[in-house]
Design goal:
It is a single chain. By secondary structure, this protein is an alpha+beta fold. Helix content is about 50%, strand content about 30%. It has two helices and three strands. The longest helix is centred in the C-terminal third of the chain and has 20 residues.
Length: about 80
C-alpha cells in the first residue's frame, strides 16, 4: 500500500476514535511504529480498550496535532 494511502487510513481511524469521545490510555513506541490504546471516556473496563498501530510518521504527527488542538480549545474555555 502506498504510504499516503496508509496515512489516510490511519487518519480515518484516529478521527473515528476521537469523535467517539475516546481517550488515550497508553502509548508505546518502538521501531515498528506507535501502539496507541484508546478507551471510551466513560468506560473503566480494561477489555474495552482499542489499540491502534500507527505505522506512518504523518499519522503520529496528526494524532499529536489533534490532541494539542483539543487541549488548547479546552484551556480557552
Amino acid at each position: 500500500m502506498h504510504e499516503h494511502e496508509l496515512f489516510l487510513k490511519e487518519k480515518e481511524e484516529i478521527d473515528m476514535l476521537l469523535q467517539n469521545d475516546c481517550k488515550i490510555v497508553r502509548v508505546k513506541e518502538n521501531l515498528s511504529g506507535a501502539f496507541v490504546s484508546f478507551q471510551l471516556a466513560d468506560q473503566a473496563d480494561e477489555e474495552r480498550i482499542t489499540t491502534l498501530h500507527l505505522l506512518t510518521p504523518d499519522a503520529r504527527k496528526y494524532l499529536t496535532n489533534q490532541l494539542l488542538g483539543k487541549k488548547m480549545k479546552e484551556s480557552m474555555t
